[in-house]
Specification:
- Helix content is 70%, strand content 3%.
- The protein contains 19 helices and 3 strands.
- It folds into 2 domains: 2-92, no CATH class; 95-444, no CATH class.
- By secondary structure, the chain is mainly α.
Length: 445
């Protein structure tokens, strides 16, 4: 919590500020969504044929944030004029505790051979998404620059293209890559908050579009003339295995599942702390410049936490722990994923779309180019919507949201999203540098 006496700041305190209360509200929303989505006839049945439950889990918390009921962060001004900035810990809790727990539970029954049999289309769509970001940035700068040159202008450290480089880092890799780009190009840190704001708004709008598309997967795949046989084979194989080990879970089963999930979380955090510290020394030992910043992601706790969790889950899938899928491992993992989705949703204030619209518009055009290229390639190679959605989110959303989107198709597919997202960390900075060079040329042309 940070205190200061800055004047002329709006008090944005939400109605509910305690995480314990807000968490309960989010759980009530999720309970309402699942209760209504289970209706087999009437209004709710028709509603959920159009709008997926996963989107509602994202959208309803966003509405509460928009109307000031809850908030991810806020500013409070006391009667004496003191300014206090506060932040909710729910997203941190969900992404650092529940996400790795969900990943290991969903990976227990993974069929690596089945994942391999998905073929090269997953990688093709991932790299298409990366290319869409690399090309989308400079094209957006060029288009907006012809209409509103001042929107893409700025000199020195204030140059907009420098700020947009951080978006490229975030939308190809993740937070570590974003920070690396901020350091490489030296964007004015006083203006950096505006770019983070664009990142949140545009990335969340695109994620909402993808979630809506999941409810129309069959129609989209039919339009793409996609071959979904490998995906269906993997889903069926995992489902068939789950049926062979299906049982009414005992208290012992539940406690062992909790031990597997949160024991893995504990080990992953411990290992991530050790590895990130080790590689931080390694990275700091490299010559200053681009080479050092390319490998910045190796010093990220989050990168190693997700990587270790995935490795542990895959290793456990070769042991008797795999049979705990029959006790509901992936179902508990799905509960954690939905809580994560709700905590992501509460980060989105829908009114922010209309603030700083020039930069938002650049981001929207950028994302449209990314999406358009994905759709074009998916149509050409007849890739299923699953590969399009996960390939995009592995770039734009990273390891926090790629498994969310993948598991919405089937819990067994969550690992595909994680593997692609981790790969995004590795190439994020290099691809973002290429994108930035092109944006700089577009901005000065």
């Amino acid at each position: 919590m940070q205190e200061n006496t800055i004047q002329d700041i709006l008090d944005t305190t939400p109605y509910f500020t305690q995480d314990t209360i807000v968490f309960g509200i989010l759980m009530l929303l999720l309970g309402f969504i699942f209760y209504t989505s289970a209706k087999e006839d009437g209004f709710w049945s028709r509603f959920y044929r159009i709008v997926p439950a996963l989107f509602m889990a994202y959208f309803l918390p966003a509405l509460l944030t928009t109307f000031g009921v809850i908030a991810p962060e806020w500013t409070t001004i006391s009667e004496t004029g003191e300014v206090t900035e506060s932040t909710s810990s729910l997203y941190y809790m969900s992404s650092r505790y529940l996400l790795p727990a969900a990943l290991v539970l969903m990976t227990l029954s993974i069929d690596l051979k089945g994942v391999y049999n998905l073929g090269p289309k997953a990688l093709i769509m991932f790299f298409t998404g990366t290319l869409g970001i690399v090309l989308g940035g400079p094209i957006a700068v060029l288009l907006i620059g012809t209409i509103s040159p001042e929107t893409v202008g700025g000199e020195g450290a204030d140059a907009v293209w420098r700020g947009l480089s951080t978006l490229a880092g975030s939308w190809i890799g993740g937070g570590a890559n974003q920070t690396a780009m901020l350091e490489i190009y030296g964007y004015n840190q006083a203006l950096y908050g505006g770019m983070v704001f664009v990142d949140i708004v545009v990335a969340n709008i695109w994620m909402a579009v993808i979630l809506i598309g999941i409810g129309k997967t069959t129609k989209i795949d039919k339009w793409l003339k996609a071959d979904t046989s490998a995906i269906e084979a993997l889903k069926n194989k995992v489902s068939d295995y789950a049926k062979t080990v299906d049982r009414n879970p005992t208290l012992t089963d539940l406690m062992i599942l909790a031990a597997i999930a949160f024991g893995t979380v504990s080990f992953a955090h411990w290992g991530a702390g050790f590895l990130s510290a080790f590689f931080e020394d390694f990275v700091n030992g490299l010559p200053k410049g681009i080479t050092r910043n390319i490998f910045t992601f190796l010093s990220s706790d989050f990168f190693w936490m997700i990587s270790l969790t995935t490795v542990i889950g895959v290793l456990l899938s070769f042991t008797r722990a795999r049979s705990y899928e029959g006790a509901g491992a992936s179902k508990f993992g799905s509960v954690f994923i939905y809580i994560l989705v709700a905590s992501i949703g509460m980060k989105m204030d829908l009114t922010l779309i209309f603030e700083n619209f020039g930069l938002i518009f650049i981001g929207i055009v950028w994302m449209i180019i990314h999406a358009g290229l994905l759709i074009l390639v998916a149509k050409l190679i007849r890739a299923p919507y699953f590969f399009l959605a996960v390939g995009s989110q592995a770039n734009v959303g990273g390891a926090a949201s790629a498994p969310i989107v993948a598991s919405a198709f089937h819990p067994s597919l969550a690992t595909v999203g994680v593997l692609l997202a981790v790969f995004g960390y590795a190439i994020g900075t290099v691809a973002a540098i290429l994108c930035t060079v092109l944006m700089q040329l577009a901005a000065v042309s």
